[in-house]
Amino acid sequence: MSFTLKAAQQFGIPELLLWTTSACGLLAYMHYSQLVERGYAPLQDDASCIDWLDKKESSSVVYVNFGSITVMTAPQLIEFAWGLANSMKQFVWIVRPDTLAGDRATVPQEFLAETRE
Questions:
Q1: Cα(98)–Cα(68) distance, integer angstroms
Q2: For the chain, which residues make up each domain, given as ranges?
Q3: Please, which residues bridge with residue 64 across strands?
Q4: What is Dmax (Cα atoms) for the chain?
Q5: What counts of helices (H) and strands (E) characterise the chain?
Q6: 48-58 pLDDT, tens digit each
Q7: Domain of life, per the record (predicted)?
């Protein structure tokens, strides 16, 4: 069950979810493998993240993903990274290579050292 449905039920708000299909959605499903080949869809063969996550307590890991539209500056990305590190919470952060406008998204080595298990 989605978060929105759980929240609606908790507060007694009537809920209704609609999933509509579209020609664009159908074409995306039909051509997904080509999108992956060209690097437009996030797909990794590395299962170590899942193995790591399976060892964690339920609801103990924060999932962070800005989606496919968000673009930020390098200082914003670094500030957000240190905010995550300073939260002292375990997290999985999905960062697209094109998250930074005109540059490849990277975080400082100090951040990686600080947050690596």
A1: 9
A2: 1-43, 44-117
A3: 93
A4: 48
A5: 6, 2
A6: 788 888 899 98
A7: Eukaryota
Choosing among 3.40.50.2000, 3.30.1330.10, 3.40.50.300, 3.30.470.20, the CATH entry for 44-117 is 3.40.50.2000
Tokens representing 99?
Answer: 């998250």
CB atoms inside a 10 Å sphere around CB 15: 13
The two tokens of residue 79 are: 């500030």
CA distance 93 to 68: 14
Is residue 87 within 8 Å of 114, Cβ to Cβ? no
The number of residues in the chain equals 117
Question: How does pLDDT run across 62-107, given as a tens digit for each residue?
Answer: 999 888 788 888 889 999 999 999 999 999 888 887 888 777 778 8
Structure tokens at 97: 């290579």
